[in-house]
């Protein structure tokens, strides 16, 4: 009997100690450590808990940055002091590649268009299976993408041919997918070209002939969006085509169904062959809007002109860089470039885009050259662009071209950015992330 009483007394004491211990365990409120490094996170928790790193391959953040806590925990939750807490750390995506010592990695985020793409269902319903380019333009508070020749099969030819079409971008979380919605004809739900080409058979010598109209860039001024396009009369060998002129159409930013030709802004082959393909860019560091021009095809160099917002529709007020430090206005400038082109980026330059990168402290211009998507940089928006950085090549995408950026798609102060690229083999557009070292 004494043994039983002694046992019950000991059990009672153990229960009391356990209850007392649970009551006195201190709780700690988890701070927000997202975006910090592991070392910074450890300092933040001040040894109140032990952080156990769990590395997660992802495009969500730069490698080494904290994504959040594990096991469904989040900032603000209370845990026992002294606990061991999982913390998720971003690692390179599994498909990450690097073709240059100055590039941490490039990774495919998603396929934007075509079979098996993130947007396959909505685009298939609108008659899109094969397309290219995807040039980004900011329109009011949203982004749009400009696409080139488009077909109802995943091919650069075939049925359902439209010279071009536009999608809106429907989210601003770029690291997982890129959701788009096509601008369609209200009548039948098929994609609506913003300015359809004539679809003639090609003729190298007749500039009244037009095969197609393909976008080359766009810009928004006030409540109007302007889209530049090239009128192509003849497709030559791969990477070579002839352009009648580069023109411009406009629409209200709240419409995008109805487009009007801007006749004042036309650069013909006869007066300005170097402006067969025009990409416009509003410089955040000056009063100027720059236009970058290359001839038809992918074998020429890049020339540059500029104007102000006030004079955007007055072609006579555009001035052109005709020599180092020398700008000539209007027809005189175009005549100088016709006689002796002065390049802000020397041959060969393909379809290009440009944006300022704070991380580099330079303007960056990605484009296709000799089987690669490269990145060229310059201290000024008018060049000279140089210091070629390799981003992707034909080993990564057979038939690669394009490489379009926009300030809206730049993150981490310029250390990372997103761009659209095209692949001829699949004849579709992909969304990739670039992280610089």
Textual characterization of the structure:
- The chain is mainly β and 437 residues long.
- The chain is built from 4 helices and 28 strands.
- The chain has helices at residues 2-24, 38-45, 120-125, 330-339, and strands at 27-29, 50-57, 66-69, 78-80, 84-91, 103-111, 133-139, 142-147, 165-169, 180-182, 212-221, 224-235, 241-252, 260-261, 267-268, 277-282, 288-294, 303-308, 319-323, 326-329, 355-357, 362-369, 372-378, 386-393, 400-404, 410-411, 416-423, 428-436.
- Strands 6, 25, 26, 27 and 28 form a 5-stranded antiparallel beta sheet that branches.
- A hairpin with a 2-residue loop joins β7 (133-139) and β8 (142-147).
- The radius of gyration is 28 Å and the shape is globular.
- The chain starts with a helix and ends with a strand.
- The relative contact order is 0.11.
- Mean pLDDT is 94; it is low at 1-22.
Strand content: 35-45%
Tell me the distance between the termini: 77 Å
Rg of Cα set: 28 Å
Number of DSSP E strands = 28
Shape: globular
Instruction: Tell me roughly what share of residues is in helical segments.
Output: 10-25%
Low-confidence residue ranges:
1-22
Structural class: mainly beta
Tally of separate helices: 4
Largest sheet: 5 strands, antiparallel
Return the average pLDDT rounded to an integer. 94
What are the salient characteristics of this protein?
five-stranded antiparallel sheet; mainly beta; globular; 4 helices; disordered N terminus; 28 strands; 437 residues
